[in-house]
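Supplementary notes for students who missed Thursday's class. We covered one full example, reproduced here. Read the sequence, then the structure, then the short commentary at the end.
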Amino acid sequence: MTANNSGIADVEKIKRWSPVWIVPIVTALIGAWVLFYHFSHQGPVVTLVTTSAEGIEAGKTAIKSRSVGVGMVETVTLSDDLNQVIITARLNAGMEKLLNTDTAFWVVKPQIGREGVSGLGTLLSGAFIELQPGRKEGKRDQYALLDAPPLASPDAKGIRIELDSDTSGQLNAGDPVLFRGYRVGSVETSDFDPKARMMRYQLFIHAPYDSLVTSNVRFWKDSGVNFDMSAQGMRVEMGSLATLFSGGVSFDVPNGWEQGSAAKEYAQYKLFENQNSIQDSLYTEHRDFVMFFADSVRGLQPGAPVEFRGIRMGTVSEVPFYIPGVKQKLDSDYRIPVLIRIEPGRFNKQLGDHFNLDEHLKVGEGRGLRAALKSGNLLTGALYIDLDFYPQAKPFTGPKEVGGYVLLPTVSGGLAQIQQKVMTMLDKINSLPLNPMVTEATETLAQSKRTLQETQKTMAALNQVIASPSMKELPADMQKTLLELNRSMQGFQPGSPAYSKMVADMQRLDQVLRELQPVLRTLNDKSNALVFEAAGSQDPQPKKAKK
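Structure (token representation):
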């Protein structure tokens, strides 16, 4: 500070920098570096979405991959609509490569499943989140937090395919996928598509068994026990122990078919009910025919076989099949139309591709080829259609086509003929005069009843006579009578006086009769010989013998 001429002092600012500011400046720089280092070395933030945060706590629940800690849960909050739980977690630095489009997160906790008991180590340490890296490149804003680990890891080698089914509840996640009884994969997901109204299953086939899946394989439901009663008879099939309780799915190439080309990832197939039903998918080419049956079609179902002497030629398509514009009178001659399809592929292998179906049907019709309903199962009453020759059948004079379909003639089946004979016999039995016979039989039974009653009375009276005291004394009296009779008979025995006297009297009687013979002879010749003297008789003259 200096003074000027006016006596006013001049003030000068000190321009020197004070060393006191060094400490706060250094402190600020260190803090900024720490903040920069902290944020620059932080890992990515991951948002997980789940329906329940059971066992998850902010700042405590760790994120691990292959049992190595790779992050920590920071916040656990509810979503804006309060229907989900939003979990924010931060991974460690350098863990960005673990996040891909198909990365999976799930909660590891004690669980009991079909594969056994897992997660027992979390009883003491608490639940944690397991991270499984994926293979598909890219990142997502949110990941679903699963309750259980995926059946196949995203980086597992194999193939994933999809199955379509019309019936729900056939397969569940975790069910085995079998090839000729050997497990080669698992069912991953089971979802219902409301638009297509079908069940969709995702299967994973592990390598090297993924090469078994080709374009010609067929998948079918493999249950523990399959019991089938149809027109083809009764069949019981036993699956493997792996499918006995939970079920599963099997696949294979049908017999007689080529292996086909290798299947592509997420290829779609149809899930059949059983192994026998896959045969229906082998024959896509068919010819439609119409048949009119006068017999009852009760027991004939769509899918029943059409056979020729035991060889399957086709399948029943629709029964009854109402053809537009075709009307019938509801009378005794009413016939039920049935639509069938004959599949030439079933017998072209045996007869050759040159086999002309139309020509053979036309020639066979003139020789008596007819269709008839036959019983395929006596227990269930299932029917099937049998084609055979009936030489005694009347010539078919009906139309060749009906509603654009070729018409095949029919005859009554053996069961209908037996039924008709039985009904005829019952009609004859019904025409018999059963009422008078029943009346007479009733009267006879009544009389028999009365006779039995009288017999019972007689037997009762006889029992009384036998039980009487006088009847008990009868044997002694009879014995006395026999003794007296014996004594009397001894008086007439040879040597007794009575017997000798009787013999002498008989001898004298014989002598008297001899002496009376001439008198009797004379009286016989002349009845008045006792009054008038009879003429003397000449001596008898001998007669000569006849030559």
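Commentary. The helical segments are 22-40, 122-125, 348-351, 357-366, 414-431, 434-467, 469-490, 497-525. The longest strand covers residues 182-193. If anything here is unclear, bring it to office hours.
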